[in-house]
Input
Amino acid sequence: MARKTDSTPKAPKDPKEPGRLKQMVQVFNMTRRYDSKAIWIMLAGFAVPVLLGVALALILSRDNVFGLVMWILAGVLAGLLVALIILGRRAERAAYKQIEGQPGAVGAVLRSSLKRSWTGSEMPVAVNGKTQDAVYRAVGRGGVVLIGEGPRSRTTRMLEDERRKVLRILPNVPVTFLSVGPDPESLPLHRVAPKMARIKPTLTKPEVLAVSNRLTSLKSSPLPIPKGIDPMRMRPQRGR
Output
């Protein structure tokens, strides 16, 4: 009697996510591709703590082998930490450089790079359907920040319209304008979050929550623009 065979197709296994080391290698390769100075800055960041550790070892533990080893090891570990911090910052800048100028790029910043004192949506509050210029809004202890995405000649009026809407229901809350676009005076993407972090706090935490709740009452319409792109999930483009 013929033996039955199991003909049920097996479900394909989900591809495994790359390990931590492989992810770091991918981030390093992407950063090196778009930021030629990153390697030298990382090397400098690694070398300074190592040299400092060697100097301290020779000064404080010249006759103590164990002390020499520990000071040098501490310098190497500190150098690795500094290099990784530099890699993270340069990688973020390189990733934002890839999506700069694309619709939804500001939304990516608001979603992934804001400090805890600020909240913002990856979806814009106003969009020009023809040009894809947009206005994004964030709320924090510094008040309300409106960010124009596009040339300032086209987004200035959009920003003023949104400010009038905000001041109509929140007349005593400060409103700050930021601009991200091709103009020389506009902010690059990687400077948006640091610029917002430097805005002087004027509201308390309960007031921020109240402001956020009031702003949700503003009517919103469907906006023909994609959600913010996640720059840290973008894969580097292969060389042609």
Confidence is low (pLDDT under 50) at residues 221-225, 236-240. Helices lie at 20-34, 38-60, 65-99, 105-112, 152-169, 192-197, 205-215. The CA atoms of residues 65 and 188 lie 50 Å apart. The longest helix spans residues 65-99.
